[in-house]
Amino acid sequence: MRPSYRRTASALLAGTLIGGFVSLGIAVAQDAPPLMLGQPQTPPRAVAPVPSAKTAAAKPAAKPTTPKPIAKTAAKPAAPAAGKQAKAVKPPAKPSATDAAARAAKLAAITAQPVPPHHDHVFEAPKPTACANPNAIGVSRVMKVDTTGGFYVGSTYHTRLPLEPKAVVLTFDDGPMGPRTDRVLKALDEECTKATFFIVGQMAKAYPQTLRKTAAAGHTIGYHTMTHPLNLSKWPLDKAENDVRSGWQTVDQILYGHAGDRPATPFFRYPGLFNSRALNEWFNSMDMGVWTINAAGNDWLKGHLTQADGPNVMNEALKELEASKGGILLLHDIKDSSSSIVGPLLKELKVRGFKIVQIVPKNPPPKLVAGPIEGITPTIENTAAPLAERSVDNFDAARQLAQMNAGRDGKSSTAPLPAYGAATAKPTIVPIAATPVTAPTAPVAEPETTGSVATTPAKSDGWFSATATSFRGLGGALGLW
Q: Which residue in 1, 68, 73, 407 has a CA-CA distance of 20 to 30 Å to 374?
């Protein structure tokens, strides 16, 4: 390479790095503490300035009631260092009104809420239930969440639930998925605790009995669209609404025997956490709550996918929860890695002083229906997608997940893969059938693990892996392929 080319390349690289650090510094400087939803906001307490040598000398010492030698010593000013003049320590600067207004305007642009409504959340003690494990982490509190007028929480929106430090809300995305979800449910039951599952409609059709089992165990059910499109925010509004609506109608039909124009539970999470203002306006009109996260196990990245990678997911989740002092934790019940470490993770959380809080809607959902229901499991033969179709635009959750599940979940169903176009989005989507579904194959026994676990060395993905870790949505897309 010529010297001139090398100099040009070096200058470009240096400029890029400097610009990145400057942008990061500006973003950090302007970022205000997250809002605590449901609680009145109070300004930060001012710290009293430390008196300097001059001010201490000018100010007379307080007169003691009983003369003591130490009173004179305390009043004596500290000598400044040679050649230097002591300076008064200034109190921390209050957040700028301009910065607060800029952030409010940005959030209003994202959520379509110029004036966010007040949410009156209610905490309750969990209902007493028998627990065979005396050392279980259990549920510390149940939080009834008010989503009236639209509700947005998580790092995407710079907001937090009004939780105590080290309080954790467990959430699982993209299921249900046969034995892997069963493995998660078993671990949660052994620890006598509860979680929230954001359900993909296609997966609910494939494993309806697993979905019913999840809801019957007392876990909270939320929605995660019908087909898990990672570019949902770029779709035409009517198409995006149809996919979201089909997802909740499929889930509600399976759980409650009927589906309507509003979901039974007003909880939703965007695929990949990508946000859409147009959809948010729609959610506001339906009093829906949109959830993002405060911490994750990064179980969509290379080195965090397989059952052998479970320790990596566990340690990543613990690290992020410690950094965020609790909050909403994201895992995926469809992943071998996450589903294999739920039990050890809960044990370690208790050792570290964390507690579990369950979130539920302010208005309870309808009563669960009973009776057999026929699932439509995607087949490997009907889901073999050419490499060219594995793009964000053509992403199909059922197709990809069926491929991931090949050889791990027993023999695939011979039923054809159903169509999920906008034309099929009707209130009644999943009919109740008279024939029971075949019981799934028993999950593989997991090794018993307690306490901290050693990290399994993961192959480095270089700069792209680091970028994907920061941009969770892009990482999610790549992790599923």
A: 407
Q: Rank 57-61, 103-107, 215-219, 404-408 by mean pLDDT and report only the highest.
A: 215-219
Tell me the average pLDDT across 97-112.
84
Show the tokens assigned to 404: 């991931």
Does residue 251 contact residue 225 with C-beta atoms inside 8 Å? no
Length of the chain counted residue by residue: 481
Q: Which residues contact 417 (CB under 8 A, 6 or more apart)?
A: 376, 378, 379, 382, 383, 398, 399
Three-class secondary structure of residue 474 per DSSP? helix
Strand 122-124 relative to strand 141-145: parallel, antiparallel, unpaired?
antiparallel
Instruction: Compute the distance between CA of residue 27 and CA of residue 149 in angstroms, rounded to an integer.
Output: 30
Calculated CA dihedral for residues 345, 349, 351, 352, nearest 10 degrees: 130
* Calpha distance 379→6 (Å, rounded): 54
User: pTM here?
Assistant: 0.68
Count other Cβ atoms within 10 Å, centred on residue 415: 14
Centre a 10 Å sphere on the Cβ of residue 379 and count the other Cβ atoms it contains: 17
Q: Write the DSSP string, 85-111.
A: ---PPPPPPPPPHHHHHHHHHHHHHHH
Q: ∠ CA 224-176-328 to the nearest 5 degrees?
A: 55
pLDDT digits (tens, 9 = 90+) for 229-288: 888 999 999 999 999 999 999 999 999 988 989 999 999 999 999 999 999 999 999 999
Tally Cβ neighbours within 10 Å of residue 306. Answer: 14
Residue 365 buriedness (CB in 10 A; 0-12 / 13-18 / 19+): middle
What domains lie within the chain, and their CATH numbers? 122-374+446-479 (3.20.20.370)
